[in-house]
Amino acid sequence: MFYQALYGDFGMWVRPLSMFLESVEVDGEHVPRFALVEAEPSLFSRT
């Protein structure tokens, strides 16, 4: 799985699909490593 950060230096990363889809532990809770974040339409609107 190839992906690019949408912040900072916009780094590019490659992970095996299984690692991209796995869960990780955060504050004792298992959560997806990545989750879809829907953007507010106004963030991408031309003004």
Automatic annotation (TrEMBL):
Residues 2-35 form the DUF1653 domain. Pfam families: DUF1653. Gene3D superfamilies: DUF1653-like domain. This is DUF1653 domain-containing protein. It comes from Pseudomonas syringae pv. avii.
